Amino acid sequence: MPPPTISLRAGFRWTDKAGQPLIEDTSTLVLTTSTSRFVDIRVHHHTPLPDDRGLPHDAGALGLLNWAFAGTASSHKVTDSGPPYDVCRWTHWVDSRVVLGGEPHDDFANMYNMQNGLALEIGSMRHPSGEMFPYEELWTDLAIESTNMIEPRRKVCILATMEDSAREAQSMIVRVGRWVQGIVAKGGEVSVERWKWREESGKFERVVKIGRLFLPCFIGFDEGSTTQVGKTLEFDKLVWKVDEKLEWMD
After folding, report:
1. Looking at the DSSP assignment, which residues form a beta bridge with residue 160?
2. CB contact at 8 A, 154 and 144
3. Dihedral over alpha carbons 42, 43, 46, 48 (to 10 degrees)
4. What is the rounded CA–CA span in Å between residue 150 and residue 175?
């Protein structure tokens, strides 16, 4: 299995017209488990820093959410035509834009590793005009850090999900190291949260909250024996379940 990852977007541009600069006007972070389940949250913000103190962290307006989605990633490597690259596909299990009335579309792209440690993603997606436009994104992977000060080489990854089709409710929560992100959709509403464990306080602190739905990201905080695969948490007759827990040393 591939290791879990923490991916930070470092730049974006539409490439339908030549000469457009790569910019980053969102705080975009993706947490991916070793089984390729992911939560991707993109918030309109003046800096890409994923734990900036100025991010909306107290039920911010939905207009601050650029996009959020969760699902499963897959890829295969191509090596027979020039520089090697990965053909990637992201299957959206829950998507904020679709929940809020947008049209679903396939999410796939080619990923090229660059010599400076960045990865260049080249693909097509829906432009605000409604048409499909080509784009480029730059990504960098962040180091996975421990929250265990006694065993600082011990790392943790946790996945929890909720689905209730009768109530049109879905949710996914992913923890990788010191980061936790979650998304929940129910009956045409959507909410997202991002949490970061801070060494100075020794606890998780919420750095993003948009929307008003209940989202139990704290199900991923405890890395001890009380958080095991199969653990459940119920709220308003909706049940979140821990589906994966991975602990490793590096």
Report:
1. 173, 242
2. no
3. -40
4. 20
Task: Using the structure block, give the residue that is written with the tokens 């590096």.
Answer: 250
Q: What predicted TM-score, i.e. pTM, was given to this entire model?
A: 0.96
Q: Which of 103, 120, 101, 99 is nearest to 111 (CA)?
A: 120
DSSP 47-116: S--TT-TTS--SSB-GGGEEEEEEEEEEEEEE-SSSS-EEEEEEEEEEEHHHHTTPPP---EEEEEE-TT
Give the tokens for residue 23: 């910019």
Contact 79, 43 (CB under 8 A): no
Q: Tell me the two tokens of residue 188.
A: 């045409």
What's the CA gap between 229 and 245, in Å, rounded?
A: 6
* DSSP per position, 147-170: S-SSSTTEEEEEEEEEEEGGGTEE
Kindly report, residue by residue over 221-246, the tens digit of the pLDDT. Answer: 987 777 899 999 999 999 999 999 99
Tell me which DSSP letter residue 131 carries.
S
Q: How far apart are CA 110 and CA 86, in angstroms?
A: 6
Which tokens hold the place of 157?
């990854």
Instruction: Give 139-163 pLDDT, tens digit per residue.
Output: 999 999 999 989 999 999 999 999 9
What are 234's two structure tokens?
A: 């119920």
SS3 content of the chain, % helix, strand, coil (to 5): 5, 55, 40
Residue 4 backbone phi and psi in degrees, to 5: -60, 160
